[in-house]
Hints:
The chain contains nine helices and 15 strands. The protein is of the alpha/beta class. Pfam families: ADH_N_2, ADH_zinc_N.
Amino acid sequence: MTSYQRIVLAARPRGEVKPSDFRLETQDVPAIADGQVLVRNHYLSLDPYMRGRMSEAKSYAAPQALNETMIGGTAGQVVASRHPKFAVGDFVVGVLGWTEVAVTDGCMLRKVDTSHIPLSAYLGTVGMPGMAAWYGLNQIMQPKAGETIVVTAASGAVGSVVGQLGKLRGCRVVGVAGGPEKCAYVVDELGFDACVDYKAGQLLADLAAATPNGIDAIFENVGGPILDAALPRTNAFGRIALCGLIAGYNGSDMSIKNFRFLLTSRLTLRGFIVTEHMEYWPQGLSELGLLVAGGKLRYRESIAAGLAAAPQAFIGLLHGKNFGKQLVKLI
């Protein structure tokens, strides 16, 4: 292999992301120096946070640079190494971006065992999305057995894990998802107690019916009207783990009319970025890995074929077209 392809950010989106905001390039495979590793990526992770990085607006991380490889989590295999901790053939996960091949100094690169857990799962349930679910549930929501928790984007990579972990803790778990197929999956396969289809046009009534005893904790991935509908259902001293606001990533109105319930229900709302809490990752990943290997944590993947498919798959992700974790298979 003497050349490879990568996708760079060609332009900053204004509103909706377009395929023309990206550019596919061919590059020569570089030689590696002492202390470096050459990785052939097998899978690329697509995640909602990437939309925020494409903007120059102030955020928790620096914007994605124009004309540089798009940021993204990856899972692949070492094909050349001059690094003492990595050998040819090692399976690794990292953040090497939208590229078939990458050179790295090994920083933030992690070896993984694929004997009981598929490589792709390390970008989902046993990776960053799974850790976001684990951290938000355990450190912020802290639900007790018998409490009712609501999980938005319940069929997605993060929400699906939150709900299953909540059931393992003895909670009543109510999901919110888009469409009857996703809601059926959330209840029938993931084991949620109920799922509200926000596209059915009866969000307030359906959410009330699904939460007869109110809501004790919310895992929020969406924001906007769905969060607004949940706030009046909250019980006193409820907790909200704010993981994402995908409803507003393309510039949609995110205003909250029921803001007063933060006061009247004495709610705790905490936003978090899971990569700022790396001290919890060893424990969380160990627990998630054991659950996946033991068949106690189910997951679903949407897989696009080939790097060139990444922009359209990412655009689909922002519109909820994916089912479960969105990946791009590169090899």
